[in-house]
Write a structure and sequence with these properties.
- By secondary structure, the chain is mainly α.
- Helices cover about 85% and strands about 0% of the residues.
- The protein has one domain (about 5-40, about 45-85).
- It has helices at about 5-40, 50-85.
- Helix 1 (about 5-40) packs antiparallel against helix 2 (about 50-85).
- It is rod-shaped, with a radius of gyration of 20 Å.
- The chain starts with a helix and ends with a helix.
Amino acid sequence: MTNPQLTAASFLSRSIDDEQRRFTQQAERLAEQAARIAANPPGAGRTAPGDLTRLIAEATYLLKRAVTIEAGLEAVGLMGAETATTEK
């Protein structure tokens, strides 16, 4: 019989790993987008507000993903602490 607590922690750990991979990919895209903005400053016939708005939106999604990862890591840590306490 498997311990449901360990199963939940294992599942959450795998989910966190996936989120971390997505975070890295998204952060790389965000950095590329920022580099394009920096390489093409506003000028005649070119405006930046739309590019900056998209950059801010992407950064907001990245922040949400970071918070999700941190909360998941905290939950896994609490599950481990609870398991250690109940095993004593």
